[in-house]
Amino acid sequence: MKSSPLAEQIVFSLGPVPISQPVVTTWVIMLALCLVCWLGLRGRATRGGALQTMLEVIVVALATQVEDVIKREPWPYLPLLGSLFVFLVVANLCAVIPGVSPPTAHIETPAALALIVFVSVHYFGVRA
Fold it and tell me: CA 100 to CA 48: how far, in whole Å?
């Protein structure tokens, strides 16, 4: 009998909650992104270093793109859209690393992100 394509190999458990490989990979990606942001922004200055400049370029590019699309101030939406964009780019680039399966290749990550976007669209729609 063939197992379900939705079944994931359990790496370990936190009490009654099983933790699968996509969850571990997602946690590592989140930790790496938080670490990069912390290192790049811990000593913010008017003339920052290379990492701060790179992060500012990403934020400005995303803000410009969002503003061009929605034709209003992008700043209320930028934290969600920017973090989704950066997470998805890094998660999909994980496929380049040998032995690492990107979390977006498993149904649980896109489903969770879709749920977040669905709820956020309604939240921002009611708030507007």
Answer: 33
pTM above 0.90, yes or no: no
CA Rg, the chain, in Å?
Answer: 18
Q: How far apart are the first and last CA of the chain?
A: 52
Look up tokens 């699968």; give the residue: 20
Sequence-distant contacts of 125-128: CB under 8 A, at least 24 apart:
none
Q: What are phi and psi of 10, to 5 degrees?
A: -80, 125
Residue 42's SS3 state is: coil
In contact, 102 and 95? CB cutoff 8 Å:
yes
On whether the CB atoms of residues 26 and 109 are closer than 8 A, the answer is: yes
pLDDT in tens, 60-109: 999 999 999 999 999 999 999 999 999 999 999 999 999 888 999 988 89
